[in-house]
Amino acid sequence: MSHATSAASNLPISRQTKQGLYVDPQALSAHLPALAYKDNALYIEDVSVKQLAQHYGTPCYVYSKQAILDMYQAYSDSFSALAHKVCYAVKANSNLAVLGVLAEAGAGFDIVSRGELMRVLAAGGKATSVVFSGVGKTHDDIEFALKQGIACFNVESQSELALINNVAARLDIRAPISLRVNPNVDAKTHPYISTGLKDNKFGIAHEKALSVYQQAASMTHIDIVGIDCHIGSQLTEVAPFIAALDKLIELVHSLQEQGIELHHIDLGGGLGVRYIDEMPASIAEFAQALLPKLQELNLTVFFEPGRSMVANAGVLLTRVDVLKPTAHKNFAIVDAAMNDLIRPALYQAKMAVIPETLPTHGLDTEGTQPWDIVGAICETGDFLAKERLLTLATDDILAITGAGAYGFTMSSNYNSRGRACEVMVSGDEHQLIRKRETLESLYANEMLWQKN
Ligand SMILES: *Cc1c(COP(=O)(O)O)cnc(C)c1O
Questions:
Q1: How far is 153 from 380, CA to CA, in rounded Å?
Q2: Any atom of ligand 1 within 6 Å of the Cβ of 156
Q3: Which residues have a Cβ under 8 Å from the Cβ of 34 and sit 6 or more positions away?
Q4: Distance from the CA of 408 to the center of ligand 1, in angstroms?
Q5: Contacts for 191-197: CB closer than 8 Å, 24+ residues apart
Q6: Is 378 a catalytic residue?
Q7: Which end of the chain, N or C, is less surrounded by CB atoms within 10 Å?
Q8: In this structure, how many other beta carbons lie within 10 angstroms of the beta carbon of residue 379?
Q9: Mutate to test the pocket of ligand 1, among 304, 307, 309 (most ligand atoms within 8 A of CB)
Q10: Ligand 1 centroid vs 304 CA: distance in angstroms?
Q11: 404 lines ligand 1 (CB under 6 A)
């Protein structure tokens, strides 16, 4: 079960043929902590996917509680030599049950809005282990977070710093802050999820950071407690993290020379996951690379992992509604769509699609054809996967893996589609953790025009 002890080999699990991409479902499931085929049927922990699809209907997100806890533990264990805090990035998956499981395990949280802070509190998390990131914090966000007593604001601009000082002064509280430094390193990831380059909107340029810290030190209601960076998401190599850390360490030393002492260094999130054949550094490798430099610093270390904590703990289950072979392409129209899972449409993300029931022989099975797995939404960008070699029939249940992060949280009601339900599994138990949205609820906040 544990990711760290998985015996999966490092051979590629996908094969690009002339017809399309074949992803070996059994080899893939061997890499995914919560999934396994038993007698050709897919299970998440000890619950059959077929049973889940029948019980809850589709589309349906399913998360393994144990897989989430194992990832948290992997971070915790890998950095046990240091004072550290793992602040789970709520935006990856903000379901209350997910937050509750992590809060109980002792995690802190990284939030980017007041709404996320309210979720953390509702799930039993403590404000004192919350860090507040994001480029556009408003007066109301800051006031609410200050009153709750959050651990730190990760400040992204001088005007935000001034605003925090003003709000804190009015409340007669001192606001704990870090500056989010933009170290100008290339995370070598998709441009939309790269955040640490100088032309990104995030953070304060590292050349300017020292002077902004001096400004902060002179403010009446600001407590400087740390330094922060977050350079992007789905990073597969450790080198960019090291490059960013080196720039932060330089700054920490310059600050010490100015008499500014910090309590913590926050390295953000961003560690990548294996969706198909990506080979991201493991949490242990990531820790090994960073630990020597961090130990010298003698600061508490914060991390803000999102994707790596939950992506592979989750699947999106969907049913094949219509098979539509055409002269050029075969379309499998499923009951999930881009409104449920936007990563393929937004980032050209390749996610694996595996069947609930294994065909009798992998690639050679009669009827295996390239299929575009698409939703029913009126957009050509509405696809979940393209040219996948699969053996399909209508009413088949498919699992889209890696869907635990940036899946449900990025879903929408486009085309007046209710959002999917969410389910958590633990051992042989399963429970609804978010009801499927009713169609009436989609327009419940709307009013007909009533003037003249
Ligand atoms: C999104 C985000 C994270 C989490 O990133 P992952 O790639 O999901 O680990 C952490 N910190 C900040 C500031 C973020 O915006």
A1: 41
A2: no
A3: 1, 44, 45, 64, 66, 67, 312, 313, 425
A4: 16
A5: 192/346, 192/347, 193/232, 193/233, 193/234, 193/347, 194/231, 194/232, 194/233, 195/230, 195/231, 195/232, 195/233, 196/229, 196/230, 196/231, 196/232, 196/240, 196/244
A6: yes
A7: C
A8: 14
A9: 304
A10: 6
A11: no
The whole-number pLDDT of residue 190 equals 67
Given the structure tokens 């589609």, which residue do they identify?
A: 417
Ligand 1 site, residue 407, Cβ cutoff 6 A: no
Round to whole Å and give the CA distance between 32 and 2.
9
Distance between CA atoms of residues 73 and 65, nearest Å: 12
CA dihedral of residues 311, 202, 124, 128 (deg, nearest 10): 140
**pLDDT of 94:** 98
Q: Using a 6 Å cutoff on CB, does residue 308 contact ligand 1?
A: yes
Compute, in angstroms, the gap from residue 197 CA to the centroid of ligand 1: 15
DSSP-assigned states of every residue in 299-336:
-EEEE---HHHHGGGEEEEEEEEEEEE-SS-EEEEES-
pLDDT at 5: 40
Report residues of the chain scoring pLDDT below 50.
Answer: 1-6
Q: Helix, strand or coil for residue 342?
A: coil
- Find out whether the beta carbon of 309 lies less than 6 Å from any atom of ligand 1: no
Residue 82, classified by CB atoms within 10 Å of its CB into exposed (0-12), middle (13-18) or buried (19+), is middle
Q: How high is the pLDDT of residue 360?
A: 78
